[in-house]
UniProtKB/TrEMBL annotation:
Pfam family, one: RF-1
Record keywords: Hydrolase
Protein name, as recorded: Aminoacyl-tRNA hydrolase
Organism of provenance: Kinneretia aquatilis
Family according to the record: Belongs to the prokaryotic/mitochondrial release factor family.
């Protein structure tokens, strides 16, 4: 399932905070970091994607089903906002991809024989490492 999804403005809740860490004057004065909140249940996502997101064990998803993403890499509020939205889209895209079903296969007869021949060879090498018995 390939989902080209872009969240609507009403689905996203942004709050701007001061970024943590070093940065001097700019980091102390400007609220450039972004907290993005996205409520999974109220969103316009398909029910299957909502269910997969809720089942995901990701620390960014809290118990109420709200995704909280913090972006603070850039000095610009707009760049951090765009990065947070991109991370949300990446998270949704990760659950939208359905993995291919795995089918059990048997090793071929030749591969089994090669494996057993290698084991016999190695066994012979190790058997030769025993004590030497004198005459």
């Amino acid at each position: 399932m390939n989902l080209a999804w872009t969240p609507a403005d009403w689905e996203l809740d942004f709050s701007f905070i001061r970024a943590s860490g070093p940065g001097g004057q700019n980091v102390n004065k400007v609220s450039s970091a972004v907290h993005l909140r996205f409520d999974i249940q109220r969103s316009s996502l398909p029910p299957l994607i909502k269910q997969r997101l809720m089942a995901l064990s990701d620390q960014r998803i809290n118990g109420e089903g709200v995704v909280v993403i913090k972006a603070q890499d850039s000095r610009s509020q707009e760049a951090n906002r765009a990065e947070a939205v991109a991370r949300l889209q990446e998270l949704v895209q990760s659950v939208a991809h359905t993995p291919k079903a795995r089918r059990a296969t048997k090793p071929t007869w030749g591969s089994q024989q090669r494996r057993l021949a290698g084991k016999a060879l190695r066994s012979g090498v190790k058997a030769g490492r025993g004590r030497v018995q004198g005459d």
